[in-house]
User: Which sequence fits this backbone?
C-alpha cells in the first residue's frame, strides 16, 4: 500500500465519517467528526465488550445515514494491547482502522481550547481531528502463521528473560554459600545443576570421594556421565570454602526451587523452539532466507515474527522505517547537525537486525565486503 501523506489525506473526503476513539481498559470514548473536523456527535462511552462494540457499529451506521456519509474511517490511539479486540471486530465488519501517534495527541490537545486539560472525551475529539488531516498510520493486523510467530517469538523472549533472572539468582546464591563454585564451572550445564541439586553446600562434599558423588549426580534426569575431573576439583575447593554457614535450611530450599525452575524454563524454551521451527518452515520466506549464508533458524524466526510476509512491502525503505532506522538531523541556518537514527519504530526488529548482522559479516562474503566498505 502506498501510504504517503497525500494518500492518507485523500482517504478523508466529504463523504467520510471520521471516528476518533480513545482506548482504555474498560471504557473507550468515541467522537464523530466530518472531513472539516466539525463535531457530528460529541464523545460517548463504549464498553470493552461484544455488546459495546455492537452499539458502536450501530452508532456508526446511524450517523452515516443521518449525515449522508458513504464511507467511514476509525482512528484510535493505541493503549497497550487493549485496542486489538476492537480492531479485529472492526475488520470483521469491513471498517478501516488507523492509528494516531500518542505523542501527537499529547502535543496537539491544546490547539482547540488553549488549555492543558486532558480527559478521555477530549482525547477522542483530538484523535478524530488528527485523522481527518491524514496524520495517522495504517496498522497491519496479524493472521494465521504471522500471528502465531509473533506470539511465539514474544513468549520465547519472555522465557529467556525469566531464565536469565533465575540464573542471576543462582549466581547470587552461590556467591553467598559456595563462592568457589564458579572457579570450577563456567556455566550452568548439566553437571553444575546436578551439583546444586544434590550437594549445594561445601559441607555436603566433606569426606566423600569423586566416585561416590558421581553416583549421586547420576540420579539427576539426563545426567549419565558427570565429569570426574570437575567433581574432584570441586571437592578440593570445597575444603577451604568461605561460604556462609548460617541459614542453610532455607537456603537449601531456595536453591532447589531455583534449579527446578531453571530446568523447567530450559525444557519450555526447547519445546517452543521446536514448535516455532516447524511453523516457520511452512512459509516461503523461510525457504528464501535459508539460502543466505549466516542466517540461522532462530534469527529467521525472530525476523519473520517482526516483519511478517515480504508480500506486505513494496520498497526496502518501508522496512527501514518500520525498524526506526530512518535518519534524523537537527539543523538550523548555517548549523548542520549530525544525523542519527530516529528509533521511531519496532525496537525488537532493530535488535534482531543487529544480531543477524554479526554472523552475516562473519560467514557471508557479500555482507563482509559491504561492512568493510561502509566502515572504511
Assistant:
Amino acid at each position: 500500500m502506498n501510504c504517503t501523506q497525500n494518500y492518507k489525506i485523500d482517504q478523508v473526503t466529504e463523504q467520510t465519517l471520521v471516528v476518533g476513539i480513545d482506548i482504555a481498559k474498560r471504557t473507550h470514548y468515541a467522537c464523530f467528526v466530518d472531513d472539516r473536523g466539525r463535531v457530528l456527535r460529541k464523545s460517548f462511552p463504549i464498553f470493552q465488550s461484544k455488546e459495546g462494540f455492537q452499539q458502536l457499529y450501530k452508532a456508526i451506521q446511524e450517523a452515516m445515514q443521518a449525515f449522508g456519509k458513504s464511507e467511514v474511517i476509525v482512528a484510535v490511539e493505541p493503549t497497550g494491547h487493549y485496542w486489538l479486540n476492537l480492531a479485529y471486530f472492526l475488520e470483521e465488519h469491513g471498517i478501516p482502522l488507523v492509528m494516531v501517534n500518542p505523542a501527537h495527541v499529547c502535543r496537539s490537545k491544546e490547539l482547540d481550547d488553549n488549555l492543558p486539560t486532558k480527559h478521555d472525551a477530549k482525547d477522542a475529539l483530538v484523535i478524530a481531528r488528527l485523522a481527518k488531516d491524514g496524520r495517522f498510520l495504517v496498522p497491519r493486523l496479524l493472521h494465521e502463521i504471522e500471528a502465531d510467530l509473533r506470539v511465539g517469538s514474544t513468549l520465547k523472549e519472555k522465557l529467556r528473560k525469566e531464565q536469565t533472572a533465575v540464573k542471576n539468582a543462582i549466581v547470587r546464591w552461590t556467591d553467598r554459600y559456595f563462592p568457589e563454585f564458579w572457579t570450577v564451572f563456567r556455566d550452568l550445564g548439566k553437571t553444575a545443576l546436578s551439583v546444586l541439586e544434590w550437594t549445594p553446600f561445601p559441607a555436603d562434599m566433606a569426606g566423600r570421594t569423586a566416585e561416590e558423588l558421581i553416583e549421586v549426580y547420576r540420579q539427576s534426569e539426563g545426567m549419565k556421565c558427570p565429569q570426574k575431573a570437575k567433581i574432584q576439583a570441586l571437592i578440593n575447593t570445597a575444603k577451604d570454602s568461605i561460604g556462609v554457614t548460617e541459614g542453610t535450611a532455607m537456603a537449601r530450599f531456595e536453591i532447589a526451587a531455583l534449579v527446578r525452575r531453571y530446568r523447567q524454563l530450559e525444557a519450555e524454551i526447547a519445546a517452543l523452539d521446536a514448535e516455532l521451527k516447524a511453523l516457520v518452515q511452512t512459509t516461503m520466506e523461510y525457504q528464501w532466507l535459508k539460502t543466505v549464508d549466516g542466517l540461522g533458524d532462530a534469527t529467521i524466526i525472530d525476523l519473520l515474527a517482526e516483519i511478517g510476509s515480504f508480500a506486505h512491502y513494496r520498497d526496502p525503505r518501508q522496512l527501514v522505517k518500520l525498524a526506526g532506522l530512518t535518519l534524523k538531523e537537527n539543523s538550523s541556518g548555517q548549523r548542520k547537525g549530525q544525523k542519527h537514527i530516529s528509533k521511531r519504530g519496532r525496537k525488537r526488529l532493530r535488535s534482531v537486525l543487529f544480531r543477524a548482522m554479526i554472523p552475516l559479516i562473519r560467514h557471508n562474503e557479500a555482507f563482509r565486503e559491504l561492512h568493510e566498505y561502509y566502515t572504511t
